[in-house]
Every structure is written in C-alpha cells, then in structure tokens.
Amino acid sequence: MTRGKFILIEGLDRAGKTTQVNRLYERLSPNSESMKFPERSTQIGGLINEYLTNKSFQMPDQTIHLLFSSNRWERQEYIEKTLVTDKKHIVMDRYVYSGIAYSLAKEVDGMDFDWCFGCDKGLIRPDMTVFLVNSKSNDNREGFGKERYEQKCFQEKVHEKFDITFQKLATKDNTSPVQIIDVTDKSITEVEELIWKVVEPVVGAKSASNQLLRF
C-alpha cells in the first residue's frame, strides 16, 4: 500500500454516522484512524462547540462558517501525515460537504455555493464519501434537539443542499465518488455491511502514488 485511503461518512444529524464510523474504524484496525469534525478539542473547535451547544451564544453566519473551515484546515497536516507517512486509513465523521450544506441551508444573502466553498479549496479530498439517508425523520432519535441545527425543518433544507453540493463538487473522472446508502428501517449491522460493500474495493486498491486528492 502506497498510502492510506480517506473514507468519509456524511449524513444528517442523528443519522447513525458516528456509529458507522466506529464500526468501519474497528473493521480496518489497527491500520486506521477515526476523526470527526468539528474537532472540538482545539481553540477554534471550542468556539464552535460553544456556538452549537449554547443557543444564546451568537455570532454572524459568515463567521461560524469560516471557523468550521478553519477547524478543517488546522487538521490538514495531521491528515496528510496519517495517510502518507503512517500509511493508515482515515475514517471521517463529517467534513467539507457538511460545512457547505449547513451554511447553504441558512439561505443568507451573499453566502452562495461559491462563497461557502471558496475557503475549503485545497483541502484534502476523500477517496470515497458515503452519505447515509433515512426517509424517516431522525427527530425521534435520542438526543435530537440538543444542538443548534437539530430542527426538523432545517434538517430537510440541509438534505436538499447536500444534494446540490454533491452535484457541484462531483469529479468528472469519478476519482472521489459519493455513494448514497438508504438506511431506512435497517439495523446497525445491515448498514455496516452495505457500507463495507462499497468501501472494501477502495481500501483494497493500491494507490498509484502518495499523491492525495484535493478539493
């Protein structure tokens, strides 16, 4: 293996992403690392956490978008080291697509796709993205509503913006494919196997070089 593969799992809030990230990470261990954005342990991540969990803590939508992007940028060196130097796979919970989709869903003047994506250009791109879709509402999941964006009507807007974001960022040569997996009424194990079916060929394929994909 020339370098590790970068697998991203995306989805709406409480869609089961974190559970599946942990399952895939365990499946690929010991040759893997799991990561999650926002990374709340950094100074920037601490501000983001305060914004998400304290609804009285306000800041402009443009500011929080740039903080989310900065949070991704501050972890790029670690991501590259893990993939290229350590030759480990990365299983990621949320990344660029979430950042764009959630900001677009706010429908703020001036925050169009080009503006939202501009600060993420150059970030390391996943080798594969898995998007978990549940046709039933996630608002009955335990913990739903604790954070700022966990509102049913807003989540519906976010889903629409995810679709737009995937289309706009699609690569012509399909070097960074997005696989949509319907998890409606499926068990955790069933979803795990569906994810593994599309991920296994990617992590099993040899990379032609250490070169990483970029947005």
UniProtKB/TrEMBL annotation:
PROSITE patterns: THYMIDYLATE_KINASE (PS01331). SUPFAM superfamilies: P-loop containing nucleoside triphosphate hydrolases. GO terms for cellular component: cytosol; nucleus. Pathway: Pyrimidine metabolism; dTTP biosynthesis. Residues 9-195 form the Thymidylate kinase-like domain. One of its GO terms (molecular function) is ATP binding. InterPro entries: P-loop_NTPase, Thymidylate_kin-like_dom, Thymidylate_kin_CS, Thymidylate_kinase. One of its GO terms (biological process) is dUDP biosynthetic process. Its EC number is 2.7.4.9. Keywords: ATP-binding, Kinase, Nucleotide biosynthesis, Nucleotide-binding, Transferase. Gene3D superfamilies: P-loop containing nucleotide triphosphate hydrolases. It comes from the Eukaryota. It holds the Pfam family Thymidylate_kin. The keyword Transferase applies. HAMAP family: Thymidylate_kinase (MF_00165). PANTHER family: THYMIDYLATE KINASE. Belongs to the thymidylate kinase family. This is dTMP kinase. It comes from Kazachstania africana (strain ATCC 22294 / BCRC 22015 / CBS 2517 / CECT 1963 / NBRC 1671 / NRRL Y-8276).
